[in-house]
Specification:
Number of strands: 5
Radius of gyration: 26 Å
Helix content: 40-55%
CATH class of the largest domain: Alpha Beta
Largest sheet: 5 strands, mixed
Length: about 270
């Protein structure tokens, strides 16, 4: 009788539901923010040298200099450049690369009024400049520009039209198809897949309405928004054979463009 009672008890005990089990799980705390990495020795001195060069080259028409890139984001590595944007009066669109100590200084000259106008439709400027560090400011022009940059960033990037979405999809699948056509030319196929992936990454930010991030942050950003897509991207990047890269590339594109229609037929 006791055995029967134990067996009856065993059969009548209900299995907990998924919701009941999840309710007993403790929330996993977010990892603590890591402290900012200190600038490598000599970096700030190199920045000052580059700044003096810009002031000497542009003279009286210079209105501002902004440090951008990894130097402004406190994400410097041994091979990071000193990325500077020099703002001048009037029109300017020039670029120079110089050696400063053991680093390269990448200096781009722009008219400050043109930069203000470009903020309205540029896909890159707001995210590039919003973390910039002002090194030189004449009459508060950079401070005012920074306020406009933050305001524009909060508005989000311009939306994509359905025609642009279809174009992005068609271009990515075209490169993927060309790579598949040239499987016997291994180097060419891998090169085309590299172009395919770069176009897919650009399409991801455009289609999802996100500002572009630094290349080193792309995968982490994607994983925080769409883990399944980021997982396929990781498998594509680490695949050791062309067949696997083609396979994961197609899965990646299918998921990325699942809500985008194909081009219209005219036949």
């Amino acid at each position: 009788m006791e055995l029967e009672h134990v067996m009856d008890t065993h059969h009548t005990t209900s299995t907990p539901t998924r919701e009941e089990l999840n309710a007993e799980l403790l929330e996993v705390p977010e990892p603590p923010e890591q402290p900012e990495s200190p600038a490598p020795p000599g970096f700030e001195a190199n920045v000052e040298v580059a700044l003096r060069h810009i002031k000497g080259r542009r003279g009286g028409d210079l209105v501002g200099v902004i440090l951008i890139g990894s130097g402004a984001r406190k994400a410097l590595t041994l091979h990071s450049d000193i990325d500077l944007m020099a703002l001048v009066k009037g029109e300017a669109d020039s670029h120079e690369i110089l050696r400063v100590g053991d680093r390269l200084a990448d200096i781009r000259y722009h008219g400050y009024q043109s930069v203000e106008e470009d903020l309205a439709y540029s896909l890159r400027l707001p995210s590039l400049l919003r973390k910039g560090r002002i090194l030189y400011d004449h009459d508060g022009i950079c401070v005012k520009l920074t306020e406009k940059i933050h305001h524009r960033f909060r508005q989000g990037p311009p939306p994509t039209s359905i025609n642009e979405q279809i174009r992005l999809k068609a271009e990515c699948y075209h490169l993927l198809g060309k790579a598949q056509d040239l499987v016997e030319k291994l180097g060419t196929a891998h090169y085309l897949l590299t172009l395919f992936y770069e176009d897919c990454i650009s399409a991801f930010f455009r289609l999802r309405g996100f500002w572009l991030v630094a290349p080193v942050d792309v995968h982490r950003f994607m994983f925080s928004r769409e883990p399944a897509l980021a997982d396929l991207a990781g498998q594509f990047l680490t695949a050791t054979t062309l067949t696997d890269r083609l396979n994961f590339g197609r899965q990646f594109a299918d998921l990325l463009f699942k809500d985008v229609p194909n081009p219209a037929r005219i036949d």
